[in-house]
Amino acid sequence: KMSSPSLKTGAYILIGVGALTMLMGFLGCLGAVNEIRCLLGLYFTCLMIILLAQIAAALVIYFQKETLKDELSNIVVDLIENYDPSDEDKRNLQDAWDYVQTQIACCGWTGAKEWENNEILKNKSNAEYPCSCSNRSKDLEEGEGFCNLEDSVNGTATYADWPVHEQGCMDGVEQWLKDNLGIILGVCTGVAVIELLGMILSISLCKNIHSEDYTKVPKS
């Protein structure tokens, strides 16, 4: 209920790439140590598949970013509406969202108003608010769940009365990506270069092994 087809597909791709990377490393070491050409060729093929998969993932993210943003928005809004600190089944997901709000200093996906639709807060007339949204240090020490609004008006309050951050997490995440775009691109480029070097090395080893085998063949 807390996922979407695109995000599930992305997760499966990452799992597959991780498993393939582990297998690839084992085959590469085994092929290099024992000078087995077929394993080195398989190592080269795995590296090429991973590199192509990374390029394909980058293109999907770039051209489908609006669709992915809409799906992520639906997931977060649903999470906020059903947020319940006593629900152990969703504990990890809720803790992750609390961490995002605390670290980015944001509240809700587009703003704190989304928290007014939370089932628990509606039943309490919004006299409480999410601690991870708070701009007060004593609330951030709690870091999760709901905090009591000390100055509620006639027992009823709105999100405007909460001591929380005004910025929505969507804007905060986008700003974080912009601020760290150089680092992200640098890491991706570095990984791609390492993969290309591995492909070149495996081809060179295959050629050396082939040359050695050729020189060992007795001439008639």
UniProtKB/TrEMBL annotation:
Main localisation: membrane
InterPro entries, sorted: Tetraspanin/Peripherin (IPR018499), Tetraspanin_animals (IPR000301), Tetraspanin_CS (IPR018503), Tetraspanin_EC2_sf (IPR008952)
PROSITE patterns per the UniProt record, alphabetical: TM4_1
Protein localization: Membrane
Family annotation (Pfam families): Tetraspanin
KW Repressor (keyword) present: no
Residue intervals passing through the bilayer: 12-33, 40-63, 183-206
UniProt-listed SUPFAM superfamilies: Tetraspanin (SSF48652)
Membrane topology recorded in Swiss-Prot or TrEMBL: Multi-pass membrane protein
Keywords carried by this UniProt record: Membrane, Transmembrane, Transmembrane helix
Domain of life: Eukaryota
Recorded GO CC terms: plasma membrane
Assigned protein family: Belongs to the tetraspanin (TM4SF) family.
Protein name from the UniProt record: Tetraspanin
Organism: Oxylabes madagascariensis (white-throated Oxylabes)
Lineage: Eukaryota, Metazoa, Chordata, Craniata, Vertebrata
